Amino acid sequence: MPEAIRKVNVIGHLHPDTDSICSAIAYAYLKNQISDIEYEPRRAGAINRETAFALKTFGFEEPELITSVAPQIKDTQISKQRSIEADTSLFSAWNLMRDLKTSTLCITDEKNDLLGLIAVKDIASANMDIFDTAMLSTAKTLFSNVLETLKGTMVLGDPADRICQGNIRIGTTPEMMEGNIEKGDIVLVTNRYETQRYAVEAGASCLVVCNGASVSDVVIEAAKANGCTVLTTPYDTYSAARLIPMATPVSAEMLPEDKVLRFSVNTAVDDALKVMANSQHRFFPVMDEDGRYVGVVSSPNMINVNKKHVILVDHNERSQAVSGLERAEIMEIIDHHRIGTIETSSPAYFRNEPVGCTNTILFSIYQEKGVEIPQNIAGLMLSAILSDTLAFRSPTCTDRDRYAGRELAKIAGVDIDEYADAMFDAGADLTGRTAEEVFNSDFKVFSRGHARFGVGQGSFMTESSRKAAEALVGPYLKEAAAANDIPMVFYMFTDVKSQTTEMLYWGANTDQIVARTFGVTPVDGIATLPGVVSRKKQVIPPLMTTLQDMDEEDE
C-alpha cells in the first residue's frame, strides 16, 4: 500500500531568484485549489532584494526556509509513549514500564517540558541501595506514594503531605527500639500495642502498621498529640520494608534533563542514527518545534520512514537543488531550463517548455485547470516574468511570455514599465549589502563532463549601479569559487536598457575560455558582450560547448 501523502513542499533552486520564489508560491496556491493535499511553498536560500520588493509589493511573507528534504524524526513512527510526573513513585514507574514493555520513561512537567528520564536500571540501583534509609525524606516523598506502594490506608494524616525527615526503621519491641528510634523516623510495626505506642512517643513522624493490624484509639490520640501520621498496610513487615523505598519519587533517581540525549522532530534521521550508535540508551525523547515532549524513538523506528514529497520549480539540475533530494519523493518538476541531472525513483510529472520564465508555464496551467488567478498572485507571476525576461528584452522571451505578462498586469492592476523599473532598481540597490549577498542573489552551478562551473547574473537599469556592483563583487569571485567548491566562476553584469553584459570571471584559463566562447578580447579581466543578456540561452550553451571541446583536445 503506498504511503499517504501528508504535505508537499514546492521548492525552487538554491540561491533563489524572483522566478524561483514566485513559482513556488503561485504553484502551491494553484495546487491547493484543486487538491485535498496540503502544498506549501518553500525557499532553499536567502531571497534577493528584487524578490523582496515583489513580495512586499503584493503582500506576501518570505516562504519558510528549507535546507534539506532528507527524512527527519517527524517522518518516522514516533512512539506516543506517555510521560510521567516527577512525583510518580519508582514502584508505579516500574509497573508502567512492565505494562508498556519499555525500559525507559520520560518525566515531564504540567507544560510537557522534559524534566528527565528514568530507566529500569535506575530503579534497580535504587532498590539495591539497602543502606540508604533516608531516601524517602531526602526525596520529599508524598505520603500518597507510600499509600499506593503499600496498598495502604490512611488512618491519620493527609496523603498530600510530604515526608521531610527521618529514616526508615523496623519497630520490634520497646527494649530493642530504645536508642534506635529518633525523632522524625518512619517506623514499621506490627499489631503490638506497646510497640506502636513507644514508636509514637519516641517521636516517629510516621507509623506504618503492617499485616493489616488495627490501631487503638489510645495510639491514635497519642499520634495526634505528637504530630505523627498513621497508616496501615496489608503487607507483612518484611514485604513492607522491601517495598517502602519504592515509594521514592522518580525525580530522585532520574537522569536530569540537561544530561538526556534527545531529538527534535526536525532532527535528520541520519544524524539521529549516528547518535544512537554511540549511546548506551535504547529510547530517546522527541521534542516538538516548541521544545515540548511528544514521544520517544529508537533504532527500529528509523527502518521505515515516510519520504518527504516535493515539487521542484524553476530547476531540474541536482547541483541547484536542495540537500537530501535523493531521499525524497519528487512528484513534479515544472521548469523552463535545459534538462539536467535530477533522477526520480518513480515516475513523476515533468513539464519543461522553451519559454522565458517558469511562471509563463504556470499561467498556462492556471488556464488549463480553470483556476482564477488572484490579484496578488498575478503580481508575483508578473514580477517573475519581468525578471527572467528582463522586461521582455531577453532573447529567451517568447510571445507566450509577453502575452502572459500583459494579462497578469491587467489582473494585478500595475503598469508594466513603471513596475519593472521600480523592481529592477530595488534589486540593484547595494546599500548595506556585502559582496557575498550580491553574488548569491542569482547564482547557479552547472556541470558538463568533467567541468563544473558557476554563472551568476545581476540586472541593472543604470550604468552607475552596474559599475558599483562590479566593484563590489569582482574581488569576491575567487572566494565564491572556493565556497561553492568549483574551479571556475563567471558573473554577468547586465545593463537591461542597453542590452549589454560585462562579464567578470575567475579560475584557471577562464580568460581563454571567455575569449574563445564569445569571440571577444577581455580587457583588464572584463569581457564586454553586446546583445548578451540571457544566461540560459546565450551563456550556458556556448560555455559548455567550449569546455567540452577543450576537454576533448586535452585527451
From TrEMBL:
Residues 77-133, 254-313 form the CBS domain. The keyword Cytoplasm does not apply. Its cofactor is Mn(2+). SUPFAM superfamilies: CBS-domain pair, DHH phosphoesterases, HprK N-terminal domain-like. One of its GO terms (molecular function) is metal ion binding. Its EC number is 3.6.1.1. It holds the Pfam family DHHA2. InterPro entries: CBS_dom (IPR000644), CBS_dom_sf (IPR046342), DDH_dom (IPR001667), DHH_sf (IPR038763), DHHA2 (IPR004097), DHHA2_dom_sf (IPR038222), DRTGG (IPR010766), Ser_kin/Pase_Hpr-like_N_sf (IPR028979). It catalyses: diphosphate + H2O = 2 phosphate + H(+). The keyword Membrane does not apply. One of its GO terms (cellular component) is cytoplasm. Signal peptide: none annotated. It comes from the Bacteria. Keywords: CBS domain, Hydrolase, Manganese, Metal-binding. This is inorganic diphosphatase. It comes from Parafannyhessea umbonata.
